[in-house]
Specification:
Blueprint: E1 24-29, E2 34-39, E3 42-53, E4 61-73, E5 76-77, E6 89-94, E7 100-104, E8 120-124, H1 125-134, E9 140-144
Parallel strand pairs: 1-9, 7-8
Antiparallel strand pairs: 1-2, 2-3, 3-8, 4-5, 4-6, 4-9, 6-7
Amino acid sequence: MRMNNLNSTMLRIGEKLLISHPDFSLVIQRKPKLVVLLDKGAFFKQYHAQEVKLSPKQPARTVTKVAEIMAWKGGKRVGFGTKDYLSSTRWIRLGTPGYILYSVPDGAHPNVDQPPPASGLAMAASDVEELSSLVSGRTQVTITE
């Protein structure tokens, strides 16, 4: 939608759309609490982590991948394509233990009902929802101080 400057998902017959082939990667910067989305190595978008809960002994730099996109509704996991998926709370679990990008309430999602994990990065639910639609198990993640 952003690439085509659209305000809604409604399309009209004859409309021409740009289709991209992104190659996304993530850089997580723990101390400034930033999650940066890159496309082909160039800046695409930045997200702010509201809270970082990690064990105190972390390596200065870790390279990993997205392990899975998780969706929660009413305290239970729901699958992509199910009726509950659209209204679910999203998490992004990384391949490095303890790293989960998890949702906390925001203006668009005031009722996040999934309790937070023991460790990870808390982000606005809207940001995690958007990010979970852009990354996959092939997405490389670099974690730095």
